[in-house]
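Milestone M4 deliverable, item 7.
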Amino acid sequence: MNITEQSEKLREHIAQHAKDFKLSWLELGQGLYSVWRDKLYQAWEFDKFEDYVVRELGLKKPLALKLVKTYFFVEQDEPVYLKKEFAETRETAVIPGYESLDVLRLARGRKELTREDYTKLRKDIFEKGKEASLVRKDLTAIIKERKKIDPDQAREDRHEQSVRRLMAALKSFKKDMETLKLADPDIIEEAEGLLQRLEAQHSNDSKAN
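Output delivered:
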C-alpha cells in the first residue's frame, strides 16, 4: 500500500469516526428515555430522574432532559434518522447532531411557523447539515418576521405582558402592605379585589384562546 492509498484509507476511517461521533448520542438518548419513561431510576434507589443522571452518570439535568426530549422527537417525527441506511447514504458533513435536531423539535411547536417554514428548516438540517447555532438564528428571524406581519398578535402579546406585570405588581404591593402594615386594610382589600378580577379575566382569556 503506497502513501496515497494509506492517506485515503485514513481519510475514510476519520469520516466514519466522525459519523459515529455525531450519532453516538442516540443510544444514550434512547436509554435515558427508557429510564425516564418507565421510572427505572426508582428501582435503583433514586427518588428523581435528575438525581440518577447527576449522581450516577455525571450529566447535568438540562442536558439529560434535552437528550430525552430530542430522542422522543426523533422517534415520533423523524424515524428515518434512526435507520442504519440514513448514515450510510449521507456524507459525514450533512449528518445532523442532536443539537440541530433539538432546534427542529422546538420549531415544531411554534405556532408562528408555517408548514413551509418548518420544511425549510428541516431541509437545512437533514440535507445541508446546517449547524444548530445557524438554524436557531433562522428560527428567531422567522418568528420576528411573523410578528411584524401579524400586528394584531403582537398587540395581543403586549396586552398579555402588561396584565401579567400588573398582577405581579399588585401581589407584591399586597404582600408588602400586609407585612409592613403600611396601608389601611380597606386599601389592601381593594387591591385584593382588583387582583382577583384580573386573574379571573386572564383565566377566561386564556381559555378562550
